[in-house]
From TrEMBL, chain A:
Pfam families: GATase. Keywords: Amino-acid biosynthesis, Cytoplasm, Glutamine amidotransferase, Histidine biosynthesis, Hydrolase, Lyase, Transferase. One of its GO terms (cellular component) is cytoplasm. It catalyses: L-glutamine + H2O = L-glutamate + NH4(+); 5-[(5-phospho-1-deoxy-D-ribulos-1-ylimino)methylamino]-1-(5-phospho-beta-D-ribosyl)imidazole-4-carboxamide + L-glutamine = D-erythro-1-(imidazol-4-yl)glycerol 3-phosphate + 5-amino-1-(5-phospho-beta-D-ribosyl)imidazole-4-carboxamide + L-glutamate + H(+). PANTHER family: IMIDAZOLE GLYCEROL PHOSPHATE SYNTHASE SUBUNIT HISH (PTHR42701). GO terms for molecular function: glutaminase activity; imidazoleglycerol-phosphate synthase activity; lyase activity. GO terms for biological process: L-histidine biosynthetic process. The gene is hisH. It is found in: Cytoplasm. This is Imidazole glycerol phosphate synthase subunit HisH. The lineage of its organism: Bacteria, Pseudomonadati, Pseudomonadota, Gammaproteobacteria, Alteromonadales. Residues 18-198 form the Glutamine amidotransferase domain.
UniProtKB/TrEMBL annotation, chain B:
It is an enzyme of class 4 (lyase). GO terms for cellular component: cytoplasm. It comes from Pseudidiomarina woesei. Signal peptide: none annotated. Gene3D superfamilies: Aldolase class I (3.20.20.70). Pathway: Amino-acid biosynthesis; L-histidine biosynthesis; L-histidine from 5-phospho-alpha-D-ribose 1-diphosphate: step 5/9. This is imidazole glycerol-phosphate synthase. The keyword Cytoplasm applies.
Length: 207, 258
């Protein structure tokens, strides 16, 4: 497999790092889990995982002095779940300013009478050209979600999902990508998405 | 559309998968990792691992297998068993578990639910409730320490009250184990699940009683649960997950194809 192995997973401490690391290891890649600014800057690709609350995660990134480091990255970055929400301008979860590298806002889900959190497998519909959903047919595009906050669909949305409302399942601005679901826990479709991320080239990430 | 979840439950004791009838007489089913992998490949949507001796023995679940499972499977899984502190929860989540499920320790110290939710987020805190229908008093009673028959005891909680309590404290999902039905394969407790569905604004998972494909149809269409958990029908090969899922799809129930 010709995949780039200079992959860094940002050690956000509050995140569920292991399952993300194992998912890449199943693809034959050994990522480095680190909070070291230099290592993150020099990586070819960066994963920002996330489990927990936006407020706690942002506080964590500030303590690790990683806020500016992450904002200035120019290589492909993939935020997963809370990690995606951290890429937006702001989250209603704790009314907290986030990294602001993708022009979007994270709001509490309005799921009508449906149970929250939105938990389980749901289908995702790609918008425009979405390099991360390459080689995944619409019939195969089932992914595992667990969240109560979501990004409202707007210009940065590259895939949508429905649960009482339509929300952004994936977002993207330049080199920054976000997935609200957990590709590391989404079977074959998730593995393909991670593989697609590893295979992104500069052509995919230029504005 | 959000899929209804099929969730094989693997009761773990001393590092092996076991299954008892009505929480008793446990027999060994097999090693954990091959079973976990087999279920993931067959199309299970999620797995639950209960260390059934943990709470009764007042020790935390033996954790080494959590990481081994996380390495091999690519679907979410929940770990339950004697988790009673932030440190224990942190360790299990860090090893790759997606959710932790709390049962007896939450009954002992309900404040634990709030603490865990605050620390790790609502989405990974599941509360398991063991509920027994007492026909003499016509009440649903909550039991604890059900992993060990000699220590199993009725609590002062009735199921509806405890359900409301744990939801108010931030539980992200409820697994309702209907003890009268457990392991006897006569069908899920539709009546109880229907009665409690409206009290449960978070995902509700039915547990106990699955014996046929029809039982899954019933629990999804009649009780409107989000997921159905089962053990013996899967472990004994009575129901194959791909067959089950196709049958549900044919009936128009939203399910992720196996």
């Amino acid at each position: 497999m010709t995949v780039n192995s200079n992959l860094v997973i940002v050690d956000t401490a509050c995140a569920n790092l292991s399952s993300v690391r194992f998912a890449f290891e199943r693809l034959g890649v050994m990522p480095e889990v680190t909070a070291n600014a230099e290592r993150i800057r020099s990586a070819d690709k960066v994963i920002l995982p996330g489990v927990g609350t936006a407020q706690a995660a942002m506080r964590n990134l500030q303590q690790l002095e990683l806020v500016e480091v992450l904002k200035q990255l120019e290589q492909p970055v993939l935020g997963i779940c809370l990690g995606m929400q951290l890429l937006t301008n702001w989250s209603a979860e704790g009314n907290v300013d986030c990294l602001g590298v993708i022009p979007a806002r994270t709001l509490r889900m309005q799921a009508q009478e449906l149970p929250l959190p939105h938990m389980g497998w749901n289908t995702v519909e790609a918008r425009d050209s979405n390099p991360l959903l390459a080689n995944i047919s619409p019939q195969q595009a089932w992914f595992y979600f667990v969240h109560s906050y979501a990004v409202a669909p707007d210009n940065a949305t590259i895939a949508t999902c429905d649960y009482g409302q339509t929300f952004a399942a994936m977002i993207r601005h330049n080199n920054f990508f976000g997935a609200q679901f957990h590709p590391e826990r989404s079977g074959a479709a998730g593995a393909q998405l991670l593989k697609n991320f590893l295979e992104l080239t500069d052509v995919n990430t230029r504005a | 559309m959000l899929a209804k979840r099929i969730i094989p439950c693997l009761d773990v004791r001393n590092g092996e998968v076991v299954k008892g009838v009505q929480f008793r007489n446990h027999e060994v089913i097999g090693a954990i990792e091959p079973l976990a992998e087999q279920y993931a490949q067959a199309g299970a949507d999620e797995l639950v691992f209960y260390d059934i001796t943990a709470s009764a023995d007042a020790r935390v679940v033996d954790k080494s297998w959590v990481e081994r499972i996380a390495r091999v499977i690519d679907i979410p899984f929940t770990v339950a068993g004697g988790i009673s502190s932030i440190t224990q929860a942190q360790e299990i989540l860090a090893m790759g578990a997606d959710k932790i499920s709390i049962n007896s320790p939450a009954l002992r110290n309900p404040e634990l639910i709030n603490t865990l939710v605050e620390e790790f987020g609502q989405q990974c805190i599941v509360i398991g409730i063991d509920s027994f229908y007492n026909s003499e008093t016509n009440t649903y009673d909550v039991y604890q320490f059900t992993g060990d028959e000699s220590r199993t005891q009725k609590t002062t909680w009735q199921t509806r009250d405890w359900l409301r309590e744990v939801v108010a404290r931030g539980a992200g999902e409820i697994v309702l184990n209907c003890m009268n039905q457990d392991g006897v394969r006569k069908g899920y407790d539709i009546e109880q699940l229907c009665a409690l569905r409206n009290d449960c604004p978070v995902p509700l998972i039915a547990s106990g009683g699955a014996g046929s494909i029809e039982h899954f149809h019933d629990v999804f269409t009649l009780a409107k649960v989000d997921g159905a958990l089962a053990a013996s029908v899967f472990h004994k090969g009575i129901i194959a997950i791909p067959t089950l899922k196709q049958s549900l799809i044919d009936a128009g129930i939203a399910v992720r194809p196996a």
